[in-house]
Amino acid sequence: MNLSKATAFILFLLIHSVLIAQNIRPHQPTRGGVITESCQIIRDTYNFASYPDIDKPVLTIKGSYMTVDFKNSTIIGSSNFAHPDSFQGVGILLEGDHITIKNLDIRGFKIGILAENCVGCQILQCDVSYNYRPRLYSTTSVENMTDWLSYHVNERAEWKRYGAGIYLNFCDSFIIKGNKATGNQNAALIVDSHFGEIAHNNFAFNSGLGIGLYRSSYTYIHHNYLDFNIRGFSLGKYSRGQDSAGLLIYEQAIFNRVEYNTATHCGDGLFLWAGQTTMISGFGGCNDNEIRLNDFSHAATNGVEATFSRNLIEKNKIEDCTYGIWAGYSYNSVFDRNILRHNTTAIAIEHGQQNAMTHNLIFECETGIYNWAKYPQPDWPFVKKKNTPSFAPKIQKNIFINDKVGIKLELTARPLVDENTFVSVANKFAADSSFDLNAKEMNADSFGFLSQQLLYLDTVITSYYPFPFRGKDQIKMTPWGPYDHRYPLVWLKAQNTDTITFEILGPLDFSSGKQYGNWAVNKVEGLQLIGAKAGEFPSTIKCLIQKGKQQNLVLNFTGPSYKNQFGIQQLQQTARSFSYENKSVAMPWVVKYYPYQFDRDKRLLENIDLINQVQTTIALDSTVNTELAFNWWHEPTKLVPEDHFIAIASSEIDLPKGHYAIQICSDDAVNLRINDKLMIEHWEMGESTMYFQEADLEGLTKFKIEKLEDSGFSTLQFSLLRMN
Question: Disulfide engineering: 144 pairs with which of 86, 138, 154, 539, CB 3.0-4.6 Å?
Answer without folding.
Answer: 138
